[in-house]
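cron nightly-structures :: item 1 of 1
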Amino acid sequence: MRTTIVVAAAACMLFAMVMQPFALEHERRPIEPGALSQLPGMPLSQEECAAVKGGDVRMKLNGDRTKLTVNVIDNEYEARLGRIPPVKVLEYDVHNRIVDTVKAPFMPATKEGRELAASGQVTTKPSSFPAGYWSVTAVKPRDDKYGPYFIATNAVGQVDLYRNNGAGNYQHLGTGADIGYGLHANTNPFSVSKSYGCIVMKQQDVAELAGILSADRRQNSNAVQKIYVPSGRAGER
């Protein structure tokens, strides 16, 4: 069954790419290929194909990264297509305000980055959470200022790299691929807290979301839990 779904998703994505230059006239208005699936007998859109393959919990940030919408989806084919309403829809206040520094830790995503980091003390000027469609990779309890949970993702971003010359000056080395992006809380007041690129939530909210994700994973160990992060203003830098 899983093979059939993956093949169907790939076919739909190929169809969407082929049809991209064209539009279909419907009720005297042009319809982009992504909307063709709304017509009887037409294939699924690229987004719908991704939804069929996706997991039971889908998260999305708004454009200015101040709201996180969480859809808890029943683990059924029709529900994954969006033909059955979500079991639960939650909305959390969040932010992505970034610390203005060149001393943030570097978490290299590539072999070249790891070699550079090993050659001397390398730090970064952090950037906002990378735009894209990312997976949740772990839900980890934490008992430090970022707890009570850290929700890890596979997001990869680009950051400016610096090296301390030993005299308090930081030399710009270029840019590098950086990992370690997730969702967490902060013991500083929510209205003034900042991060090195992660999405910051309130403590009670990240605890609730961690519980939802963990319960979903217990019900289906193969669940693919996703977060969509649009491009847009990410708050103060």
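cron nightly-structures :: done
The longest strand covers residues 132-141.
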